[in-house]
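DATA SHEET
Item: assembly model
Revision: 1
Owner: S.N.
Input lines:
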Amino acid sequence: MDLKDIFFKVIISLFALFYFFYALVISKQVKTMDKTLQDKYNWLILLITSLQVTVSLILLIVLILSIFII
Amino acid sequence: MENNNKKSSVFYSYNLNPQINFETHGEGEKIILLLRSHPFTQIGWILSSIFFLVLLFVLNFFPQSFFNLGQILIINLFFIVFILSYIWLNILSWYFNVGIVTNKRVIDIDLHAVIYKEISDAQLGKIEDITIKSGGYLQSLFDYGSIFIQTAGAAVNIEFNNVPHPTDAVQVINNLLGKKHGS
């Protein structure tokens, strides 16, 4: 693995980390808004937001693992 | 007010007697109208999202010598995730930016960039003036505009931006004001 590959993986992992924190902030805010306005589609909004956090976490784990495995 | 029922829900942005609840909902307070921005006003971010998705697709046809196949896949994955997040952020912004009219007050709930929340309300008795701003071809064609509600004294003014059927919404508020003042 050359220097370019290591650099790429570190940069992309940092992006994944920031994205994970961003997804957490969005999730927290959506929960707050769910209390502020209770509408009939809130369950769908909460479901998609949870999905976003899950995807961001999977992305982060896969990319961090790829640094050590590949 | 009753003749407005046929116009309920322009893609869930104009709702008469909606089945909702909100944080500061008082006892005996009946929700009459829920307003969101007209779906047509969301066309900007919808088109830019489609443009970015097409751009990503087209860029994959150009040979990349700097990155290997695995890296190109990861970059694609990231761009798709970011575009989907951008779409989601805009949907949340649209969904949680609402104007509510109850039998006691008007409430404006704003969510800016999903991290900043602002709730302002005005009692019906304090409303002094209601202005509708609707102009241009698109606003006339799709029947949407902004409603500005001016209140007495130091009370905050309320704005419902780009809502569908602004005239009907103001008629609903005026009917409530009439009942409130007993005229």
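QC remark: Chain A touches chain B at residues 5, 8, 12, 15, 19, 22-23, 25-26, 29-30, 32-33, 35-41, 45, 48, 52, 55-56, 59, 63, 70 (CB under 8 Å).
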